[in-house]
Amino acid sequence: MTLPFALRLPVIAAPMFLVSGPALVIAACRAGIIGSFPTTNCRTAEEVDAWMTEITAGIDGAPWAANLITHSTNERLADDLALVAKYKPPLVITALGSPAPVIDTVHGYGGIVFADVIDVMLARKALAAGADGLACVAAGAGGHTGTFSPLALVSVIRGFFDGPLALGGGIADGAGVAAAVAAGADLIYMGTRFVAARESMASPDYKAMLAEAGIADVVVSSAVTGTPASWLRASFDAAGYTVDGGAPTRDYNSASDGRSRWRDIWSAGQGVHAISDERSMADIVDELDLGFIAAQARLTAWPRRTSRS
Q1: Per-residue pLDDT tens for 93-107?
Q2: Which among 119, 112, 122, 117 has a CA at the least distance from the CA of 92?
Q3: In this predicted model, what pLDDT tens digit does every residue of 69-94 receive, in sequence order?
Q4: pTM of the model
Q5: N or C: which terminal CB in the chain sees fewer CB atoms within 10 Å?
Q6: What does the sequence similarity comment in the record state about its family (predicted)?
């Protein structure tokens, strides 16, 4: 399948819980990449409706994506899927469950479905369920993360799948985008780099912590949801949680023990080092573009030998 997207850069601004809203999606699309948001960022289906109205009115037909949680704990999936059918995002990304519940609806209006996967087994299951493409979440990604190297994961999956593939995991600059494309990805699934964008819904304190953090400040823990995810260690300390405390079962609801875990514990991937301050999405994408062009030039200029001698 050839991706039906005209983009400045092959990048999806990954859907981030409590971070991605209409302003960030619109800014991403206007900058020439794919903006996305998880419908669970809205408290009600009516709010999803309002967000999708705002997004579609603000992007002048540019490609965008909606992210649906298909895990059994998402009691609003049917309502949100009905709104997907109404607004017809060209790309729907499923996460934390099989893509099967959304396939017929999205295909019905001509959209395509990517399934968020962290390993080869889940990739095969998603494709068997009818997914058109994969959003491969590798080691180094923010939020719910995988454990395999991005380059190794894309190489293995390309051994049995030649369709559209997005790759994420610690990719935060233009050189990383170029490297992922060279390795076999069609799109790059980039989240952390955009959390501190001016248009994101992240709090000022969250953005400030990101600007001060480095790669060593990111920790993987299942304490928040019962599923391994990448977080800023300092936010654990500030919220009074322990990194080693594991949730006994999967729980993706935001509140627990009178505290809002997702509000008070902040996600970040290993690309956090690329954040130095709050900047507009347009400025961030400009910087990514320059880095991507420079990386392409380095590859072209590499002094390749033409024989074994």
Answers
A1: 999 899 999 999 999
A2: 112
A3: 998 888 899 999 999 999 999 999 99
A4: 0.91
A5: C
A6: Belongs to the nitronate monooxygenase family. NMO class I subfamily.
